[in-house]
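wait is this the right file?? whatever heres the structure
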């Protein structure tokens, strides 16, 4: 079967570079996939334009509009959005539904259901003058009809295209469905109806001809999932002409990975799941599955107190759909008594684009720290091939971020990729008080694995009511110690990278305490220039 795929060799090479190297037990992975293939016999709705003529006007019982929704299955599934926007770009030219608005009473002309409709939701994607609309019927005997099409809602048209109709609670929707194909506009549509027995499914869309993404190309992208009014999960995306052209030239499919690591293929190319390529036959797909399996699974995050008022993350909690809880909490103002949750989420393509430099060089990886209930977002971005030479002398390190200036409350970042075993040191120039009332300047910060599966090491530190040794004091420095000389010292703010004379002069004691700390940690300090 692998001979039929014929992936572009150049694209496959670039995609392999853009995919995090992961260790993977392929036998166990394929066994899991085949186990689900044996018990799932879903049939795929053929690709291409799926057009329907909604000639009959559906009579809607508006008297029942005040009733609460009765889902065909209790909404125990967890949606996995990507950020807070209603629509997100998951690859260049490929937009996906991320979060949906409140359901409303259906418009009669746009209801493609055999029975009465209960809810209608505009999903936020538009093709020409048509909008993608989800319509859900009433529950009856454990089943619930639904449909999603691009419909001319504003024009009052009763024609829909690019979607499908299914019934939750009965086959083949119980096994998962993929509606995909090219619209008459030349765009490409994807709609995935997820099986209801998967608790927290990730949706991986793959294509042998690949997708253009920030930093290169990839054969696999993850689509965010969203919940219908009654709790069932879906994924939907719309690609522009360039995406459609790539999809036409190769093979594509959808693979589901549940929170327990089970792999469920959705039927591809008009065939049953038994005819889909094996996971390891699609470049990058096995690594994408491994990255999901490597995500945190603990119910609660682990933290450690480095000093009074200084708390750091040692392990993340499992995702709740809103991101990975770091376990640290921060007050949002100096007078606040309520502390807010800090979580990490996968950076969106827009985040990576915004982090690009003036020369057009854009990072390929990233996470965003978010403080619940606020607009505070701290992007941390990097690339797997980052080098020290990319940083101008004295410049700040883009792989770190902090909230606050003098009154720093949150520090987060990624250990530089060119010094993967570096220690992270939080340096207080004026010192702080420890549990015993002694003055300390340095706190070693623990790290944890990047939850997106890149293999990078991240850190997160919250600073609450830190007791300064002498008054307010200067803001702390975040130092990375990557070797045995001052040339291997990276300051996220740039001032003390390489420990130049300017760094030492800025210290209250002329740098004596800093040099002593570095020497105690095995850093040769006989010189204070970067050439050490």
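ok assuming it is, sequence goes like this
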């Amino acid at each position: 079967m692998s001979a039929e795929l014929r992936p572009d060799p150049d694209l496959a090479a670039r995609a392999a570079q853009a995919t995090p190297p992961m260790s993977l037990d392929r036998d166990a992975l394929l066994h899991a996939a085949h186990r689900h293939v044996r018990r799932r016999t879903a049939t795929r709705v053929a690709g291409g334009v799926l057009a329907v003529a909604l000639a009959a006007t559906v009579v809607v019982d508006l008297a029942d509009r005040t009733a609460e929704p009765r889902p065909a299955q209790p909404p125990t599934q967890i949606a996995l959005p990507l950020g807070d926007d209603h629509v997100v770009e998951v690859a260049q030219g490929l937009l996906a539904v991320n979060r949906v608005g409140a359901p409303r009473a259906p418009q009669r002309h746009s209801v493609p259901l055999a029975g009465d409709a209960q809810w209608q939701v505009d999903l936020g994607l538009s093709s020409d003058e048509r909008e993608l609309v989800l319509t859900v019927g009433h529950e009856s005997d454990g089943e619930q009809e639904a449909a999603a099409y691009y419909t001319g809602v504003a024009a009052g048209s009763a024609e829909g295209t690019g979607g499908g109709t299914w019934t939750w609670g009965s086959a083949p929707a119980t096994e998962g469905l993929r509606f995909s194909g090219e619209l008459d506009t030349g765009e490409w549509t994807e709609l995935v109806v997820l099986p209801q027995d998967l608790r927290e499914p990730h949706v991986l869309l793959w294509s042998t001809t690949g997708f253009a993404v920030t930093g290169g190309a990839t054969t696999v992208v993850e689509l965010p999932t969203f919940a219908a009014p009654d709790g069932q999960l879906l994924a939907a995306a719309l690609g522009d002409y360039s995406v459609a052209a790539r999809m036409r030239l190769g093979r594509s499919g959808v693979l589901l990975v549940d929170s327990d690591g089970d792999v469920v293929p959705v039927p591809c190319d008009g065939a049953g799941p038994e005819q889909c390529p094996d996971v390891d036959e699609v470049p990058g797909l096995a690594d994408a599955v491994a990255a999901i399996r490597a995500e945190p699974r603990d119910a609660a995050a682990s933290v450690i107190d480095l000093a009074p008022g200084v708390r750091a993350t040692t392990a993340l909690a499992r995702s709740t759909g809103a991101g990975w809880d770091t376990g640290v909490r921060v007050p949002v103002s100096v007078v606040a008594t309520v502390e807010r949750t800090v979580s990490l989420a996968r950076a969106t393509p827009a985040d990576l684009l915004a982090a690009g430099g003036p020369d057009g060089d854009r990072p390929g990886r990233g996470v965003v720290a978010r403080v619940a209930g606020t607009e505070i977002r701290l992007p941390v971005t990097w690339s797997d091939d980052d080098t020290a030479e990319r940083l101008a002398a004295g410049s700040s390190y883009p792989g770190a971020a902090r909230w606050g200036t003098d009154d720093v409350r949150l520090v987060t970042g990624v250990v530089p990729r060119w010094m993967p075993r570096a220690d992270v040191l939080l340096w207080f120039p004026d010192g702080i008080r420890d549990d015993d009332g002694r003055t300390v300047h340095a706190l070693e910060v623990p790290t944890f694995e990047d939850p997106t599966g890149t293999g990078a090491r991240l850190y997160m530190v919250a600073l609450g009511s830190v007791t300064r040794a002498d008054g307010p004091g200067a803001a702390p420095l975040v130092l990375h110690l990557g070797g045995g000389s001052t040339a291997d010292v990276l300051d996220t703010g740039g001032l003390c990278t390489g420990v130049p004379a300017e760094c030492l002069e800025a210290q209250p004691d002329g740098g004596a305490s800093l040099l002593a700390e570095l020497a105690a940690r095995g850093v040769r300090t006989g010189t204070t220039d970067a050439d050490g």
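The chain has two domains: 87-294, 302-521. so i think its the right one actually
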